[in-house]
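Possible regression after last week's pipeline update?

I re-ran a chain I had predicted before the update to compare outputs. Posting the input and the new output here so someone can diff against the archived version. Not blocking, just want to make sure nothing changed silently.
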Amino acid sequence: MVETENGGGLRLFLLDLLFPNRCPFCDGFINYKKLCCDECFGDIMWADDKICKVCGKLLYKSCTCGQNKNYDICVPAAYYKGKAREGVLSFKFHKGLNAAEVFGRVLRERLSDRGLLDEIDIAVPVPMEKKHQRKRGYNQAELLARVIVRDTEIPLRTDILTRTNVKRSQHTLGAEERHEAVKHQFSASEGVWLDGKTVLLTDDVITTGSTLDYCAGLLKGKGAHKVICAVCTTV
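New output (post-update):
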């Protein structure tokens, strides 16, 4: 069972007096030690056996294993529905940062249970365009990665992939538009080599898989042997 408490502490208590703690899934006030409501955690549609263990999409409906993706495995925490969807939106747009802890802890447990965490040599988050990250104040994919690799020896690298030329957000585009857009948005840094390494690639949502696929291709172009994706939710 994933722990949904932070353990308290005077700092959190004092911070809660000024900025009362809220659940990232329902926005309700919660105890300063909690990451989310117990009710919300129980209501989330966590990824189950109906999700493909390779591509991270729904079996018999949207499985993409026959499409020769560049990433080797995608592990989602939950379905992009209900409370989980609200948590992702809060995480992305309303600074509901507790969601990073909840999703990250679930993903870390799932990666560990499947023996995948021990394979990972380096963690790389899907990047945001710099101006958008400055405006938001953080990159949600990076925060997610930090939770997953916390207290491990896995280094987190934010200097390998970059994103530019974002005209429209990916969630506003159709499948073909997404596929074309990523070609002009992402690039890999020169002078970086990942020879034989297994890379953890993190993001908030997998929809068509275009973003993860293209980024994984860039990582493999730098010599990565295997790319394991971890995402908050799957559509």
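Follow-up from reviewer: compared with the archived run. The CA atoms of residues 17 and 155 lie 35 Å apart. Marking as no regression found.
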